[in-house]
Amino acid sequence: MSRFAYIFLLLTIFPSYRLFAQKADSTAIISAKVIDELSKKAVPADIDTSFLNTHFYNPVYRETFSPQYNGNTGSPFQNNIFSKRNNQDIFLFAKPFTTYYHTPYKRLHYNTHRPFTEISYVTAGNRETSEQLISALHTQNINKYTNVGVDYDLIASKGIYLQQEVKANRFTFFGSYDKDNYSIYGNVSSNRTKEQENGGLANFQEFIVHPATDPVAYQMSLSNASSMLKNLTVFATQSYRFKKSVSDSISLPADSLQTLNDSLYMQSDSLTALNDTTTKTQKSMPVVREKSLPFMINHTIRYDRFSRVYNDQAVSSDTIPGFYQNNYYNLNSAYDSVFQHVLENSFQISGDEYKFLPGFILGIKHQLVAYSYLYPRPTSITVNSVIIDTILPGDFKTNYNNLSLYAMLLFESKSKITYQGKIEYFFAGYRQNDIMADFKLNYKLNKKGDKISAFGKFYVTEPDFFLKQYYSSHFQWNNTFPKSSTTSAFASYTSGNGTVYAEGGLTLLGNYIYLDNMAIPAKADNTILVTSFMLEKTFKWGGFNHIHKLIIQKATNEAVLQIPLLAYGNTSYYENAFFKGALKFQIGFDFYVNSGYFADAWMPATGMFYRQDIARIGEYPFLDGFFNWKIKRTRFFLKYTNSLAGIAGYNYFTTYGYPMNPGSLKFGLTWTFYD
Known about the structure:
Helix content is 7%, strand content 55%. It is mainly beta. The protein folds into two domains: 2-241 and 294-673, TonB-dependent receptor, beta-barrel domain (Maltoporin, Chain A), CATH 2.40.170; 242-293, no CATH class. The strands form seven sheets. It has a 22-stranded antiparallel beta barrel. A three-stranded antiparallel sheet has the order 2-1-5. A hairpin with a 4-residue loop joins β28 and β29 (583-594). It is globular and about 90 Å long. The protein starts with a helix and ends with a strand.
């Protein structure tokens, strides 16, 4: 606690005189946009300055109230809410980590009148079990049209169990230029995650009985295994809007023209020329201005390089020498690496909405995708004229050129009904004959802003390349899966004040590909229907606030797809302010629970979740207490996680074999300044 006390004194008391002097409203100083993935347009985005989000330091709890992860911050993650799971077309082995990643379509691009900096720091544990998270963002405008910035995030968590350490570094340089009829937004991001792979508990039931209080007393399945995941992304999207010059003639009394001239000159950003020939007798004045045409062209380029390396070494200290069913090598060590490179270019032309006609987008996309991996290959070598059978690394490489056409209709005017729909068809490459269609429709019910929405998709897609073909030290497969299909339809209601959100719908999965209980890709024999209903409701009485979140979901084939039938989350807190609002505080708790189910297990060698039917996970109440306080633009929190550990038993798992941490105190702060 001495470290907490030192940071508290340094950042709360010492600089308080400066913090109380900062009166500027950030909304008047900085704004942000994000690139819409479907339309490639830069649309306004909110900057997260929520006081309540201060103590949600772990990214997985910002994404869902029902997460599955391996217990340590930065570890692999999967959303228990099936309709919200990550189904992006990215590197297969990176999907459990993209929640932590810097990606182009999550990147905020800023426009700020002053240099803007935000620093966050979270710490917990002692030197042997320390957990630290650091975030630093700085952005500033070079001029009124050009902005640049850097964003850095670090997770360094040693964990409290054996062989559990995680280190994740994410760095992004971003910039934008937006003036008149031309704009360009871009970023370069580097994501890197390194973690020790312990394979989970060697004896799951022993931990439930809990004969020892020291976490390091529980043996793990692997003692010398690790993985490294890297990603480099380069992204740029640029747009050009066509304009034409238009001449107008303005007639006014002569004594008013000079005043108008002066006024128009002050608005010269919207004029290309001004004929300043006013005389005492002049009755009219020609003005030449630019008028936007309803057409715009866009080019987007993106390059992604992914790699994953896994290695382990079988030693006598391994609790389970036969943890892996297969070992395709002749030494006591394994080294696997797999790569994917994607270079994507898209060109599109778009038209604005006109009266009752919707806007449109027509585009073409090309993807150069390269797949490769190293694998152990039996061979013979000659040593001193003696032929010796051995295993040497083999190198597999292949690439494809995917070509697609896409079209989009969108109507987003300020009317009761707005909608957008997109369809994309691949006519060449690995994804030939893939089709993807998305739609969303909103209907505004009243002036309060209440609305109902309908949204869904229809996808027929080729299974990921690495689900069809992959060779490594412990797993080898060569499958001929047919295309998978996903059809979903949802409806939702959102209240205008944001206190109620309800959503329900169906998802139909055809030729669903999953990892079976041997962690091998397999195809479901029958079509799977997933039904779900979700409700979020906020109550407020004076300073007391309650946020309730509920999901009910069911899959028809539980032998293939297991998800909790029910999950519930509750955040309740009391909020107040002192010193005319200069000091605010919140004190409360977060509560999470889900029904029991056979939660997926984690396979270290492949870096993917897979089915298990050994033990049910769930029915354990996670209770976290928190205290947030804010002095002007500096936010602090104290949080005690899993406070019911031991009291409610020891079944605190979200992933089979990977226990969550017992009770732990966290301290953090977020400091924003723009002087």
